[in-house]
């Protein structure tokens, strides 16, 4: 690990004609973390990835990958990145093994290293049994794993995953999540763009929400959820007597069921204070659960 951020963006701007796609974006992504870009279609997520991957140039601002300027040092940037898009880059007429060998050649590996690295990736991604079958016969989940394996051929320090689980079934999506966790455990930095909010919640250390090219919110998943009101602690009681005593202690009105929903968050102090008031009133709580807004709520609240 180094003190140099894996991704550093300052004042990044990109326009297509009169349309501003990215407007003065600042980002700081530490090494070995998962950083997710969320936003509706057209928010600028893919444009951001394409700039960072040196595929297009920004109109203004500075972007660095592992300390290398994407505009001035594109060759150095390409040497440390990998990329997997939402649409597979596989050659369907080649086998899985041949696709990987082709990518090994593009990464200028020696012949012996090509074979060794290809076998290693086939095993790692559970594709060894299908290595000599045409990619056209692969399932959606297998194609995504092979696509990601190709992106990792050059041992990148930073990998861009642009909506990597689009169209996958729940099991394949969770398999991909586990692969991402393993990558960051090895020090790889992942920039993830996704429209699956649960995916960002599960994987991301930090999340940036883009809307109409602007950064409208950034933070950890928990920090973002606290931006939206509506969190509460749900207390369930064994009978109406306990419910009434709790309602009196908390100065609340009761409903038809044996539940009180107390506005609050999941912080330890909040829960301690709440339970302290009930203990003082000698009220027994049968069950407690904390309900917080999810990223869907945040997404709807901060995007237009």
TrEMBL record:
Its main location: membrane. One of its GO terms (molecular function) is ATP binding. InterPro entries: AAA+_ATPase (IPR003593), ABC_transporter-like_ATP-bd (IPR003439), ABC_transporter-like_CS (IPR017871), ABC_transporter_ATP-binding (IPR050763), DrrA (IPR005894), DrrA1/2-like_C (IPR025302), P-loop_NTPase (IPR027417). The keyword GTP-binding does not apply. It is a peripheral membrane protein. The keyword ATP-binding applies. Residues 7-237 form the ABC transporter domain. It is found in: Cell membrane. Keywords: Antibiotic resistance, ATP-binding, Cell membrane, Membrane, Nucleotide-binding, Translocase, Transport. NCBIfam families: drrA. Belongs to the ABC transporter superfamily. Drug exporter-1 (DrugE1) (TC 3.A.1.105) family. This is Daunorubicin resistance protein DrrA family ABC transporter ATP-binding protein. It comes from Actinoplanes campanulatus.
């Amino acid at each position: 690990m180094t003190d140099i951020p894996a991704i550093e963006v300052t004042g990044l701007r990109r326009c297509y004609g009169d349309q501003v796609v990215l407007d003065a974006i600042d980002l700081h992504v530490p090494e070995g973390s998962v950083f997710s870009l969320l936003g509706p279609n057209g928010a600028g997520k893919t444009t951001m990835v394409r700039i960072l991957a040196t595929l297009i140039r920004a109109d203004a601002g500075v972007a660095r990958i592992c300390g290398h300027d994407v505009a001035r040092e594109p060759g150095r940037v390409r040497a440390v990145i990998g990329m997997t898009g939402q649409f597979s880059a596989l050659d369907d007429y080649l086998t899985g093994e041949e696709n990987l060998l082709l990518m090994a050649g593009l990464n200028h590996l020696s012949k012996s290293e090509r074979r060794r690295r290809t076998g290693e990736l086939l095993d790692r991604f559970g594709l060894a049994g299908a290595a000599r079958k045409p990619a056209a016969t692969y399932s959606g989940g297998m194609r995504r794993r092979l696509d990601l394996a190709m992106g990792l051929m050059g041992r990148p320090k930073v990998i861009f995953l642009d909506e990597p689980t689009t169209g996958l079934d729940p099991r394949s999506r969770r398999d991909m999540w586990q692969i991402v966790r393993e990558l960051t455990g090895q020090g790889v930095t992942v920039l993830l763009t996704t429209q699956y909010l649960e995916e960002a919640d599960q994987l991301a250390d930090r999340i940036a929400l883009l809307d109409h090219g602007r950064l409208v919110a950034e933070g950890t998943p928990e920090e973002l959820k606290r931006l939206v009101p509506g969190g509460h602690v749900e207390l369930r009681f064994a009978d109406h007597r306990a419910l009434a005593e709790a309602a009196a202690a908390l100065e609340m009105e009761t409903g038809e069921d044996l539940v009180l929903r107390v506005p609050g968050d999941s912080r330890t102090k909040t829960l301690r204070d709440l339970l302290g008031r009930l203990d003082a009133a000698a009220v027994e709580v049968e069950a407690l659960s904390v309900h917080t807004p999810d990223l869907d709520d945040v997404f709807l609240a901060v995007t237009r």
